[in-house]
Amino acid sequence: MIAFDTDVFTEILAGKPAYIQRAQAIPREEQSVPVVVVEEILRGRLNAIRLAEAGKSRLTIEQAYGWLVQSLRDFQRMRLLPHSPVAEAQFQQWRSEKIRVPTHDLRIAAICVAESATLVSRNRRDFEAIPGLDVEFW
User: Which of 21, 34, 117, 127 is the most buried (most CB within 10 A)?
Assistant: First the structure.
């Protein structure tokens, strides 16, 4: 199974041809997204709405809500990987080992290890530091 990190999944959602092509080479049933990626993208969408409401964005409020709706539709088509007790135990183990990686990235990695998924990311600096994580860099 392949799990997309936020940086790669965002490029797919944005319709970047190079990322679309690579994702299309992976069977649909093998594609997934850790729930933490969903959280990160939704936070961004909600922030875009907040900024549009305040008049501090180049996006209109209609565009900002449109992005949110489209993201929700995109998530419905993906297999979502949960933050399970096994993932939390892995996360806590890495924390006790003092692995210095941002919390969300460490949670994404723990979910992937718990689900036996290969993470696809552009974030070489953080994910190379995590033992036992199967990761592919695009």
Answer: 34
